[in-house]
């Protein structure tokens, strides 16, 4: 997708979000298309990034509309806090890795991976969704330790040759 196409897609997402905010309705009233791993893995890197730009724009728009005191059941602050440590490229890479590691779960929506695997470990337990930040941290440390061990092993093997 060319840059102009990415901006058109992002603009369309902003327009859709604006219309959704302008005419609120119950979630059960409408069915929107769900982007799954099947869509994600068939998209170009630019399209993947454009999807995340659109999601971030909707989060930003919702923050602006709700102001300093979001609704009790709003996830907006959790989304913002949870995704704030990542750049768009890091999110693309993390989602790509998740689907590569789980090829049998391509029907899982991208937004679920964004929520449960990226955002939630960064904000901990809430009334909206539960995450154990200690477990997430332990898992990330174990992954980092395993990666460091693999790099050291590869380096030692390379030095021996």
Describe the sheet with the most strands: none
Instruction: State the low-pLDDT regions, or none.
Output: 10-27, 127-133
What would you report as the Rg, rounded to the nearest angstrom?
Answer: 19 Å
Estimated structural class = mainly alpha
Shape: globular
Strand content: under 5%
* Span between termini: 44 Å
According to DSSP, the number of beta strands is 0
Order of helices and strands: HHHHHHH
Query: With helices defined by DSSP (H or I, 4 residues minimum), what is the helix count?
Result: 7
Mean pLDDT over the full residue set: 77
Helix proportion range: 55-70%
Task: Jot down its keywords.
single chain; mainly alpha; 161 residues
Can you walk me through this structure?
The protein has 161 residues and is an all-alpha fold. The protein contains seven helices and no strands. The longest helix is centred in the last third of the chain and has 28 residues, at 133-160.
Question: How do the helices and strands line up, and which of them pair or pack?
Answer:
Elements: H1 3-22, H2 37-41, H3 45-66, H4 76-83, H5 88-101, H6 110-119, H7 133-160
Short description:
By secondary structure, the protein is an all-alpha fold. It has helices spanning 3-22, 37-41, 45-66, 76-83, 88-101, 110-119, 133-160.
């Amino acid at each position: 997708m060319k840059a102009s196409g990415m901006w058109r897609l992002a603009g369309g997402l902003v327009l859709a979000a604006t219309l959704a905010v302008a005419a609120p309705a119950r979630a059960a009233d409408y069915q929107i298309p769900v982007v799954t791993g099947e869509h994600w893995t068939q998209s170009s890197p630019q399209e993947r990034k454009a999807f995340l730009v659109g999601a971030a724009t909707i989060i930003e728009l919702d923050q602006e509309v709700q102001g300093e005191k979001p609704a009790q059941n709003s996830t907006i602050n959790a989304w913002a806090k949870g995704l704030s440590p990542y750049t768009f490229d890091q999110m693309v890479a993390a989602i790509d890795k998740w689907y590569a590691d789980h090829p049998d779960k391509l029907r899982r929506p991208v937004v679920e991976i964004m929520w449960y695997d990226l955002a939630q470990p960064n904000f901990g337990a809430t009334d909206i969704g539960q995450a154990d930040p200690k477990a997430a941290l332990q898992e990330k440390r174990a992954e980092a330790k395993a990666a460091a061990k693999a790099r050291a092993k590869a380096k030692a093997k390379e030095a021996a040759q």
